[in-house]
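Chapter review: from sequence to fold.
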Amino acid sequence: MDSQYSEIRKDYRTGYYSVIVPGRDHRPKELEIEDEGAKNLKDCPFEPDTVDRVNLEIMHVNEPWTTMVIRNKFPELEGHTPLEYENGFFSSISGYGYNEVLIESPKHFDKFENMNLKKSLEWLNTLIEREEDLYSRNYIKHVMVFKNYGASGGASIGHPHTQIIAWPEILGTPAIEIEIAKNYLKENNSCIYEDAIKKEEGRILFETEKIIAIAPYGSRFAGESMILPKRHVNYIMDLSQEEKEELVEGLKKLIQTNKKLFGEQAYNFVIHENKKEKDYHMHIEVYPRLSNLAGIELGQNVFVNTMVPEDYTKKFKEIVGSI
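The token string follows.
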């Protein structure tokens, strides 16, 4: 695109539109602020001596534990809720499901992106174990894994943790992505994500033998990225050992490089996958939280991205090349 003008782009993954606005990207010095929430040890419920193992623990790894999974004390969905549907003008689904928290470390000040490979794989394999269990439960159709870091990323607790939610239906963006992937396969006889790997050559952040990281053409947020296996895999358990290793190392590399580029910032990442939808291609989306949603996003579901993906790619590669 001409760097002088803004452009409205359509995200091939979701069909959402983004206004890509050049020349308004965030300068690193504006964002070099440590998130104060991560420093707060007072009343942290995830410390080894405060976590409620009697009432909340689901599983742990090693003794003493290095990774623990607990039930969310304040869940959005609960397994004892009867699954009921209301159809009509006012439609609803009862809040049946499961909400778990994976505590990544007993140490409050550890950070996900600084884990060594062994610890990263422990995190990933624990997630896989929990997903397998949740998918085996009655009526569960989708398991979502995501991480909120920092107050503006939605994290209410500074201790490093990842969230897992099991849903009775595939809702929202995953449902849209799956439908688009199925329709694309039917029309083109190919996977939309595998074709994206071929077509996004100007926005490739880095790649290894097994995985690739991209700044998507229709990115909704400044510094948004997507990392995915090159091979078609719809479910995280189906990754090979090599793919697991390269995926977790690549995910950490994305977060580390973003922090060098933007300074210390809140972020989210979400694992997009589904065990039962074979046409879906698993990927992880990473969103640095450099701005808040405003009227255009909330009222029109059109996103304003103040950093052109091509510019982000260029700056990202400059930092990676200097390390």
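Two observations follow directly from the output. The chain is about 30% helix and 20% strand. The CA atoms of residues 209 and 322 lie 22 Å apart.
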